[in-house]
């Protein structure tokens, strides 16, 4: 029998929060396979842009996103709506919205065309992201939290663009097709943890509509100085691979106010990465 993630417990953390804990086990049913079969008959919103519109104005910053895992849970839109910036609402697919836990490595960051920063421009990141749409029909993401291993990046991002970056100790390890990321929050809310392990599988020959909905995101919504700001971005198409969660112990998603439990209920994906540019 194939081995799939199965829930083993919810564990209380110091301070009263809880974490989802998952281990590799013999599951009676494959939740991800069921979700994939259902999603294949759904369709994208009629105004959804699969390809990015061109950036206008200056390039603010650019960098590589490398070795990303995409873990997703479905949530009712009314649960997520209070976390949306003014003028945006949860983006939905077949009536559900989603929260993602995404660990990866950011490499070669530069700002306004400067040379890449050799230390500050390379770091590990783990973010908790939501899916948003505004009245202009722009489908983007909203970040509930972003862990970075660089304190200077966390402070600068919080004060300049209003992104909720936090400072964390992080590791990433590779062993054959297995990837593992660990995070321990340093500031603020010191002590929050996450550990994610996946087994990377074969390439996704043709992503289904749900995979496109979750990955073709050409900007982010954030609240800055009392108003909602749209930051557009462009990159080449994702080259996605199938992935299987083999271990998960996470406190970040629930700490962001998102009541998920157990294993992701959407097929997990992996990508070797893309080069991305953010504009004004």
What share of residues is helical?
10-25%
C-alpha-based Rg, rounded: 18 Å
> pLDDT average, as an integer?
88
- H/E element order: EEHEHEEEEHEEEHEEEHE
Q: How much of the sequence is in beta strands? A: over 45%
Decide which structural class fits the backbone: mainly beta
Describe the 3D structure.
The protein starts with a strand and ends with a strand. Helix content is 12%, strand content 51%. It has a 9-stranded mixed barrel with strand order 3-5-6-7-8-9-10-13-14. The protein has 5 helices and 14 strands. The chain has helices at 31-39, 77-80, 151-160, 209-215, 252-255, and strands at 4-12, 18-25, 59-75, 88-90, 97-111, 123-134, 139-148, 165-175, 178-187, 193-203, 219-224, 227-235, 240-250, 269-279. By secondary structure, the protein is mainly beta.
How would you summarize the topology of this molecule?
Elements: E1 4-12, E2 18-25, H1 31-39, E3 59-75, H2 77-80, E4 88-90, E5 97-111, E6 123-134, E7 139-148, H3 151-160, E8 165-175, E9 178-187, E10 193-203, H4 209-215, E11 219-224, E12 227-235, E13 240-250, H5 252-255, E14 269-279
Parallel strand pairs: 7-8
Antiparallel strand pairs: 1-2, 2-13, 3-5, 3-14, 4-6, 5-6, 6-7, 8-9, 9-10, 10-13, 11-12, 12-14, 13-14
